[in-house]
Amino acid sequence: MGKPRKITEPEKELRFTRARQGLTFVAFGGIFLCITFWIWFSNTTINGQAINEISIRLIITLILFSLSLICIWVAVNCVRHAFIILTPLGIELFPFWFPSKNLQVIYWTQIDNAIVTEDMKTLEIQCQGGGKVFVALAPITVDRLPYLKRAIEGRMAQAKEPKDKKEGQEDPQQ
Fold it and tell me: What average pLDDT is seen over the chain?
């Protein structure tokens, strides 16, 4: 679909990040870091053979330390960058891999209905022409889900009002 358009009022955007997913990567980064220090500062044995050679220990610790840095970097990106943005133009969905390249924008004019399910696990977007988009809400923190649900429900109610007014105006004329 392309990149998002410039909007005149960016303060009307609601951004939801992958903070819950970021927490998982922080945990993995911490685990890798702890294992790295444990291997480096202890006389560890594997299958009864001592790993006393500095080169083997160095290689293992460098690999684990690199993995911990990668996990922490991914966690920071998950927390800093958006997963879903609600704008006056529509809903912007950012995938995990290559978000700037694979961004998907669904304009409000294309949406017939959008619902956050009762268990708050998915966002169902029903588009014109019968198409549906399902978005898993697991990456969003639990305390932010009610805000998303309220914003979606409010926007859908706002979109239905003009339709109801038009239908109400047409009846007296007939």
Answer: 82
